Amino acid sequence: MGLLCGKQPGCCCCCCPAAAAEEQLEQQQRFKLLLLGVAGSGKTQLGHLLSGRQRADDDRSATNGVRCYQLQQQQQQSEFAAVASITEVGGSAEMQRLWPHYYASSHALIYCYDIGGSYEQLRRSFELLQRCLQHAALRGKPVLLVASRDSESVQLYDIEHAFNLEQLARGSNCPLHLCHMLQPAQLRAGMQWLLRLLQAQAPALAQRIKYDLNLMSWQQRKRTLLSSSKLAQVHRQRFHRAHRKV
Ligand SMILES: Nc1nc2c(ncn2[C@@H]2O[C@H](COP(=O)(O)OP(=O)(O)OP(=O)(O)O)[C@@H](O)[C@H]2O)c(=O)[nH]1
Ligand SMILES: [Mg+2]
């Protein structure tokens, strides 16, 4: 005879399969989005837009570290409810060194670029994106590519063709969608595309993130162990040399 839950039918304790399924569903619809792009590309601006927060007039400084935003999608506004936490990491050369630390725990990438920038600036920005997507912990994850600022002469399809973005996406196996930050309907459709994809891939992505995080912590432990054993070896060598001399 198995143990029965003593609570009312439909209760939400951990022993109910219904509660476990609900918890799993909840976890599946909570997504972590990483917001990257070169310095001044509009990440902080976009974070405020997506979270519906007003950016203070005196808040114009570069992000030195990370900034977090929350996005809540209600079921009434869309086919499903979802909560996304968005983490912006600063885009300066120094901050870019931090980026890889956030890849493994993220479900998807939102990448900002200034569409009004020169060809050279755009080329550098997409080269950087390519390097990000080649990282093992980002490969295959969905990417929302968001243009900031106005540019009457350049359209999204010009960018797509000039920088061969389709091939970039195929090369890293990352589904890619382009939109413009200053076009509310486009941005909304872009976020819908991203969240729908994340919802469809939620169980597989959850497994992948767990695996990548375990791998990361194991590699960290291995490095610590190796460096401490190296220290021990140096200590032994010193001792042996002194011993031989005697
Ligand atoms: N007019 C206009 N200004 C923008 C737009 N996007 C960003 N800006 C301005 O450009 C400046 C830099 O934008 P941020 O959003 O702070 O850039 P960031 O990518 O967060 O930069 P870092 O934090 O330094 O990596 C800010 O003063 C913004 O007000 C845009 O689409 N239009
Ligand atoms: Mg910023």
Automatic annotation (TrEMBL):
Q: Name one Pfam family in it.
A: Arf
Q: In which domain of life is the source organism classified?
A: Eukaryota
Q: Which UniProt keywords apply?
A: GTP-binding, Magnesium, Metal-binding, Nucleotide-binding
Question: A cellular component term (GO) from this record?
Answer: non-motile cilium
> Which InterPro entries does the UniProt entry name for this protein?
Ciliary_GTPase, P-loop_NTPase, Small_GTPase_ARF/SAR
Query: Which residues are recorded as binding GTP?
Result: G37, V38, A39, G40, S41, G42, K43, T44, G91
* SUPFAM superfamilies named in the record: P-loop containing nucleoside triphosphate hydrolases (SSF52540)
Detail which positions bind Mg(2+). T44, T63
Select a single GO molecular function from the record's annotations and give it.
GTP binding
Q: Which GO terms describe its biological process?
A: non-motile cilium assembly; receptor localization to non-motile cilium
Q: Which PANTHER family match?
A: ADP-RIBOSYLATION FACTOR-LIKE PROTEIN 13B (PTHR46090)
User: This protein is called what?
Assistant: CG11356
